[in-house]
Structures are given as structure tokens and as C-alpha cells.
Amino acid sequence: MKHILAAWMRDRPGVLNRVTGLLSRRNFNIDSLQVSASEETGISRMTFEVNGDDRTLEQVRSQLIKLVDVTRVESFVQEAIVKRELALVRVAVGPEERRQVLDLIQVFRATVEDISRTDMLIQIVGRQEKIDSLIGLLRDYHLLEMVRTGPVAIVRSAVANVESEPVLEPAGDTWQGGGV
Amino acid sequence: MHFPPDHFRTTAPPRRITGSEMIWDACVTEGVSILFGHPGGAILPAYDALAIYEAEGLLHHVLVRHEQCAAHMADGYARATGEVGVCVATSGPGATNLVTGIATAQMDSVPIVCITGQVPSPLLGTDAFQEADIVGVTQPVCKHNYLVTDVADLPMVMKEAFYIARKGRPGPVLVDVCKDVQIAEGEFRYDMEVKLPGFNPYPAAWQDALADAADLINAAEAPLIMAGHGIHLAGMSDVLLRIVEKAEIPVVTTLLGTGNITETHPLSLGMGGMHGEAYANEAVQACDVLIALGMRFDDRITGRLDRFAKQASVVHFELDKAEVGKNVQPDVAVVGDLAETLPALEPLVHPNTHTEWLASLTDRKLSSASKDILTFELDELVPPFIMRQIWSETTNLRDPGDVLVATDVGQHQMWESQYFVHERAGQLLTSGGLGTMGYGVPAAMGAQMARPDKLVWAIVGDGGFQMTMQELATIQQEKLPVKIAIINNGFLGMVRQWQQFFHDKRYVGTPVLSPDYVMLAAAYGIPASKVEEPGQVAEAVRAANTTDGPYLIDFQVKEEVNVYPMVAPGAAVDELIRRPHIVQDHGGVVPAF
Q1: Which of A10, A21, A22 sits opposite B198 (nearest CB)?
Q2: What is the pLDDT of residue A54?
Q3: Smallest CA–CA separation between B556 and chain A, in Å?
């Protein structure tokens, strides 16, 4: 099962390395990972997807919070979050096919970021499945180059739907600043 | 130069000093008096500054012959005192040599602070001479680490390093200090508060689970406590004993938990696991409630996990939340500092008796004793006999509480844990988690430096001893009265045993040639003797114990002797390989080795 986790950490040199090193040496299977600034100065937010059962999820959270630089870890219930990915896709499209592609783009609410006589740069934002299906359709044309982010996620109505406390922690407590 | 009287108080006024002086001021203020280290180019300014601290009698530097041993000595120092041990090394190879010692301390939750020199900060990342990214290298094997490139950061880094090393589940912290930072001057103060929002190592919310734990324990008909290193780290042996006696609960210990309850106590079952006595492991597989205290269900104690104590409800008291459910999913987990949770549990545990359960354990114990435990009317020199002799001769002379034992890793380590009668927690210093050969001698040295009042034995094999025997020079230089027993069987014994059991006796890479250890010791000026007959053991041990200074004994034991019983890797803990017995011509039965 896929879980989405967010971790907040002090923005220090090497902190990304500490987190990814931990994940790999503990043999956790990570599907994607995004790092960005958070609302708090000096604190970065990392979003990542973990594949595994509830026990794996619990281990990932417990091990992550032990890192001195990690200040908080939350895992999300899939239904309670807004989750978005972004993809940039360059497709070889000449003038004769341009109309068809623009129609597709419109259906998917994607945007054209750059266009030339021979190709088109398309940006799409949305859930993973939506991006997958647009890319699938664009493959009918000559897909030249593609880059996509993993998902970033945020809770819909703050706190209420966050599964932020671990199984063994009392309810109502945010899961912060562990580490032994 | 003399330091003013309040110089090393945390409240001393801020002063302008060099980075090097900051390192030592912090150490002294933290209560450190001994450093284990080896100098080199990138740590030279710090060593230069050390002169005055040595002259003032504030810090004493022990020069090791290999940096790995500096970390092991700091580890031995920490285990013998409960205080933070400090080791020092230069950049590059000096720092990388520490790694095994750091990983050893990490696996066994030992608080050490490692200070390494680093190339000057402008040269970082240029593959400068003796540059190694030691922060990157040690990241997976230490609790936390720092690279200091600005002298302004150094006071806080030092304070955090000691704080993190000792707080919560202890562990090693490395501080890598660039050479220019050691030379630079800055303002030093030590009265600041450590603010680490990501480090709150004492979970507060354990009270709710405690009642459930007590209910399970009180309702148990066949309860069993499994006591680990956490009991000793939390200083909870006394509370454990009171709970054990009040509710009449037998105790199995882990390797690092040996002595949590004195092994002569009727409720002590000794060590469990791969080489625990059969009855201890059978108890684990027969109990109805398993109460795990301060331990992490290492594979050496559980054997095959899906067959481990399946009949039992599991209650897990543990400080480190990540250890809860990692290997064994408990029915009730009390995640908190054992120094708080166990005293809180004590009044909730009802006085109880478990006559039937204990009687069944006694039966198992008797059968196990006749099968696996060697009696000593033997005419061959076998290690279990030596272990008992060292213990009895030594405790004839000294109070058992005054004796510390450090071991290496392998057969002798298991024989030590089986045949010594550990009386208190922390008496045995051994590398339980990482299983580091070469640990025994330097750990014994660190312990002896920390506790000159103790009689310290290093029990080592001929394999492990040869990994760190260069420290005989350090023993002599520091005049350390450490007693060394080499269980010399001409093999890497435990590996050979595995080859015998699991690889059709193909002894690849396990026969070990040894030098003449008596001559070797003599070369270092250390008195020594060679023991080849059972009748010589007591005398040699007496000579060691009464010699004012170090002493080495080369026990030339029977070669292919095995440690019994044994849980084969991947087997359940009650599927033991028991000691075979040979029926002789006249009908007598004798144990085989």
C-alpha cells in the first residue's frame, strides 16, 4: 500500500542526505520524494511516498523522527489531502497536428509553455492519474522529452483529517521532535 | 598558566579563546578528564592547546596505537562509568579508523563523543591531503554528527554533542572540526541552553499503556521477563529485582543485559538466545506473558521471528519508539524512559506466586544442566573450565562487584557469558550488536582508565586479540593493570564452529597462526604465562590477579571445542543444537565438545 508522508526538517547542509541515507539503509521503498521550503523560515518540507504495510509506515515515521534535524513527521490519509504533481512534456508537433494536441490540452486543462514550428512544450498539473493519461495520449505523437515531479500534498482542512499521531501515541498530540 | 577557579563552570563569563581551547574547555566543563586519541596534521592545533590542560592535570591524553582502539577505549570508559567517553583523531585515515569503534558504540547505545580534525575549510571538497568526508562516512553509524566550519558555531556544537550523546538512548556523536576553526579565535560561553526542536528523546505519554501492561502481568500464569541493556542504562536493576521478587517472575537476560539480576538469584535463568542455555529459551517458548524490558529483539535473542514466543502476549517497555514493533509486535507497548516507567509499574504489579510455572522451569533447568553445562573433572584444557576458574579465583580475591570483564567476539565471548556468574549490570563489556573483534582489550583499557579501583579482565580469542594487540604498548605506557586471558585454540573458533555445523567442516580461512604470546608480552615488558594443562589454570590466574600491573595468560586450549547449546541461524529458539554425549566402552557417558 502506498502512503504519503511529510517531514519537516531544519534547513541545514546535508540534511537531505541524512534523510535519504536513512531511508535507503533501512531498506524502505520510496516511490518519490520532493523537498521544498515550508511556511516556516529555516524549515524545509519533504513529501514522499512509501510503499509498504502499516508496520513499514510506522517504522519509517519512527526512524525519521529520530533524526536530530527532523522536527516533525506526518502521514496522510489519502482521501483527506490535496495531492498534486507537475509534468513538463515536449512533443514533436508540426503545424498540421497542432490543433489536435491543443484540443487534448484543453480537455486536461494543461497549458502550452512554449511552441515552435516543430515542437510544443506542455505543462500539466494534477493528480498522478490525470498526468499519466495525458502523457499516454501524447505518446501518439513523438514525445521528445519529459520531466515530472513526484506528488506534493497538503491536508484539506487543517489538523482534522491528519493521521498525525502514531498508533502508540495519545490522540490529539502532534507527532513532533522525537529521536533518541 | 592557571585557570581561574570558576573557569570550567557553565556560568563562567564569556571569553575570547581559540577553537582548540573551546574544544577542551567544553570537555572539562562536561566532566571529561581522559581523552583517547592519536594526533595528526589536521588536529595539531588542538593537540598544541592540550598541553596546558595536561600540565594543569585537567585532561590526560592516552596515546593509542590505532584510532579504532581510541573509540573502543572511549566506549569502555563510557560503559564503566555511564559518562561520555571522548576520543580524538586527525582527519582522513585517522577519522576513518574510528568508524568501527563508532559503529560498535552506536549498536550498543554507548555515549561517546569523537573529535576529529578536518582539513582547513577553504580546502574542503578539493581532495586535499588527508581529507575524508567523515561526516558523510559516519552518518549511518552514529547518533548525530557535525562539521564545524565556523568557530562561532563551535561552543554550541560541543554542547549539543555531549547533550545528544548522553540524552535518551545514548550513542556516539562525531564533531569534525576544520583546522582553521581550531586556530581561529571566537567568543566562548557555555551557559546557553540546548535548543533542538527535533530532539525530544523522552516520550511523555506512557501512562495510559501502563495499566494495560500491569493487567497483563498480573493476570499471567507463566510470566517471563526478558531484561536488556536498557535496564542498566536507566540504572533500574534494583527496581527490576523488586518487581521480580514481588510478583515471582523469572528473568532471562540478553547478552548486554547480563547481570541485570544477579545470576545466582533463584529467579535468574541467565542469558537467552543463540547460545543461551536451553531452559532459558524454552521458557521464552512456554511463557504466557513475555515482558521485554529495555531491549530490541535482536535476531540473536529471538531466533526465527515467526516462531518466537508466539504463544505469549508481549509487553514491551522501551525508550526508543523505533524499536517497538520493529521485529516483534507487542500487545502492549510502554514507550518511555525506563527510569520513569519501571518505578511507575512497580506499585501496579501485584504480589504473586507462580509455583507451577517455576517448578516446570526447574525441571527444564536440571535437564539442561546435565546435558549442556560442563562439569569440571576433565583432564583436557577446555574453555568453560577456564572461565569458571578465572571467575572463582578472581572473586576469591576481590568482591565480585569490583570485577569488570571485557570480551572480544566469538566463542570465548559466549563461554564468558555462560560460565561467569555476573552479579551486577554493567559488569560485562562486550560488543553485542556489531560483534566487533578486537574490542576486548581496548574496552578493558578504557574501563580501567575510568575505574582504577576495579580489577579488569580482558577475555579474548587468539583471532580478535591479534586485531588490536598493538595496544599492549599503550597498556605499558599508561601502566594499566589490565589482565588479559587469550583463549588460544588456533582457530577463529566461532566461524570454525559454523563451518563444522553448516559447511561440512571445510575450515576455509579459519586456522590462525599465533605468535608466542609470552614472548610478545615480554617484548612489551608485560609479565605473562602459558597454560597448557587444567592444573595450571588457577595458579596462572592467581599470578595475574596478584601482579601489580598488567598480566597476560596464553591459554592453549583444546582446538575444536564448540559452544553448546546453539540455535542455528534461521531456527526457532527452542530448536537447539544440544551438546552431544559419547557413550564409552565401559558404559559411561561423557560430554563431547
Answers
A1: A10
A2: 87
A3: 42
pLDDT band, residue B373 (cuts 50/70/90):
confident
- Single out the residue of B177, B109, B123, B101 nearest to residue B145, CA to CA: B177
Question: CA angle at residue B405 from B422 to B316, to 5 degrees?
Answer: 55
Kindly name the residue from B179, B365, B371, B483 that is annotated as catalytic. B179
Question: Is residue B217 within 8 Å of residue B352, measured between CB atoms?
Answer: no
Nearest to A71 among B197, B208, B326 (CB): B197
Three-class secondary structure assignment of B2-45: CCCCCCCCCCCCCEEEEHHHHHHHHHHHCCCCEEEECCCHHHHH
What is the pLDDT averaged over residues B480-493?
A: 98
- To the nearest 10°, the Cα dihedral for B145, B151, B155, B161? 10
Residue B137 has pLDDT above 80, yes or no: yes
Under 8 Å CB-to-CB from A96, ≥6 apart: which residues?
Answer: none
**Closest residue by Cα to residue B345 from B223, B479, B216, B175:** B216
* Chain segment B424-459, per-residue pLDDT in tens: 999 999 999 999 999 999 999 999 999 999 999 999
| List of residues 6+ apart from B185 with CB closer than 8 A | B16, B17, B18, B19, B151
pLDDT, tens digit, 9 for 90 and up, residues B509-519: 999 999 999 99
For B264-276, write each residue's pLDDT tens digit.
999 999 999 999 9
**Upstream peptide bond of B565 is cis (omega within 30 degrees of 0):** yes
Active site residue B67: yes
Asked if the Cβ–Cβ distance from B205 to A173 is below 8 Å, we say: yes
Question: Shortest CB distance from B199 goes to which of A13, A14, A177?
Answer: A177
**A contact set with B (CB within 8 A):** 9-10, 13-14, 17-18, 21-22, 25, 55, 58-59, 62-63, 65-72, 166, 168-170, 173, 176-180
Residue of A nearest to B330 (CA): A168
> Does residue A79 or residue B147 have the better pLDDT?
B147
Reading the block at residue B295, the C-alpha cell is: 531491549
Contact in structure between B74 and B446 (CB atoms under 8 Å): yes
Which residues, 6 or more positions from A61, have their beta carbon under 8 angstroms from its beta carbon? A5, A73, A75, A166, A175
Confidence of residue A177 (pLDDT cuts 50, 70, 90): low
CB neighbour list of residue B217: distance below 8 Å, 6 or more residues apart? B223, B247, B249, B289, B291, B315, B345, B349
Quote ipTM for the complex: 0.90
Query: Using one digit for the tens of pLDDT, what is the confidence trace for B297-317?
Result: 999 999 999 999 999 999 999
